[in-house]
Specification:
heterodimer, A: 8 strands, B: 3 strands
Amino acid sequence: MFRIDFNKLRFLVCDDNPHMRRILRTLLHSFGAREVYESEDGATALEMYSHYVPDIVITDWSMPIFDGLELAQMIRQPDSKGNPYAPIIMLTGHSEKRRVTVARDAGVTEFLAKPISAKGLYQRILNVVANPRPFIKTKTYFGPDRRRNTTNTYIGPERRIGGEVEVLQQPSLLDKARSTV
Amino acid sequence: MAKEKPGAIEVKAFTDHHVITPPNPLRKVLHRVIGKDLDDPVARAEKALAGLSGEFQNWMAIEADRLSAAHATILRNGFTDDCREELFRAAHDIKGDAATFGFPSAAAAAESLCRIIEHAPDLDEVPSNLIAHHINAIQAIVRQRTKLDTVATAGELSRQLRGIADEYLMQANRDRPEHLEAIMAPSIAPVE
């Protein structure tokens, strides 16, 4: 079993809804966090990100002016002066699977669909602390490795070239299905 | 906050990508606990959340009033981009917050309203009663919660609204397969 020293972590919370910010602040303080900075929009959050250098960012998606997705994209600039590697947990009322994919492709580390629970938030924080993923940089993406599955058997069209997956010969799903008939 | 001496960033180059392993400054905050851990941060947080619950009814009333105000603006000005955005954001906040505040049926009705705003091909063509009924239902669920017999009624009301809204959206999007797919896709929101 592992325990996190929350009092050594600095959080940046970004949500335009004051009630949700209060909930998040209460949960994080109860976990033991002392430093929780809050912002009600993405632009202010980006300024605070540069100024306070948080260890973990928790952001809503839907916000006026500059949303959580844009915030993630701005943080994940590989050549920026700031830290492009901080874990980003997206906490959102969006609950469609395609949204998870969009958030993932913007460089979000963890996705947490509302309604929020203490357990759900704790597990996401534990995961970003205990299981950091390497970052991948391609022409079109910079962010945490989007592969959660560590096996090299992925045969989809967007597989990377140059790793072990390139030399694996995998039967197509159709061939697999045929062979079992 | 969680500071340690910056380690080297490890970069492996491949044909079309780089794998970058930055040093993990958060590693120092993680400790293995030997034996039984008597500290339970999740239980502590749930208790703190329960301590806030006295404010939830008031918070929900504020959120519901914001939704009604956004709807009133639309009735006056029509579906301008700003008005639509504010109505969606107000409904979306209730969808996300209401279950945490103890109003899951209000969350369900708000989700149904969000789906209408997101997937209706033309909001001016949506029967005005359909939107008004959603908003009235949310207001009623929030204001009438203290009555003992309202929980089941609230659930039934939300289910019926969702059924009517889905039927409308399926019909209105019959020639828009990408919207039909999104409408029919299951939610990933955790079940209460």
